[in-house]
């Protein structure tokens, strides 16, 4: 664990303020859920909670299977980061933070389709939790209606895993 040198007191309601510098560095915003862990040495660890991240193993297997079947790149994201990547560019995309433009597109709750990419939001219980992305490997194999339907099916499946 990295020491920051920052000390905060707990107030009379049991609250503690996470310093702005740390929130900015870790991309924690107002309303973001945090998971609380304790260990045997008495440490408290706060971790940003990602429901899609909880499905990490399933998401990786699913992305790999989709990429192999559809012959394109596949990414599964939460609202901040790529959780699973398969196919072309897997190494550079895995665990990368998503671009602000993608974050805005997800918030619109619509599937975005072009010949190069398909972005389908994962919506569970009314909340956008991430997206399924299909990425074309080259100009000879543009993405189309079948890929759009597969992305929607994948987003629906992942959403159902979070609800069940």
- Assembly category: single chain
Q: Runs with pLDDT <50, length 5+?
A: none
Spatial strand sequence of the major β-sheet:
4-3-7-6-5
Helix proportion range: 25-40%
Please state the CA-atom Rg, rounded to the nearest Å.
18 Å
Q: How many beta-strand runs? A: 7
Taking all residues together, what is the mean pLDDT?
Answer: 88
Taking the alpha carbons of the first and last residues, their distance comes to 34 Å
Primary descriptors:
164 residues; alpha+beta; five-stranded antiparallel sheet; two-stranded antiparallel sheet; 34% helix; elongated
Task: Please provide a written account of the structure.
The chain has 164 residues and is α+β, with helices and mostly antiparallel strands. Helix content is 34%, strand content 24%. The strands form two sheets. It has a five-stranded antiparallel β-sheet with strand order 4-3-7-6-5, with helices on both faces. It has a two-stranded antiparallel sheet with strand order 1-2. A hairpin with a 4-residue loop joins strand 3 and strand 4 (82-86). The chain contains six helices and seven strands.
Write the layout of secondary structure elements.
Blueprint: H1 20-25, E1 34-38, E2 44-48, H2 51-54, H3 56-70, E3 73-77, E4 82-86, H4 90-93, H5 100-107, E5 112-113, E6 117-124, E7 127-135, H6 145-163
Antiparallel strand pairs: 1-2, 3-4, 3-7, 5-6, 6-7
Short overview:
The protein is an alpha+beta fold and 164 residues long. It is 34% helix and 24% strand.
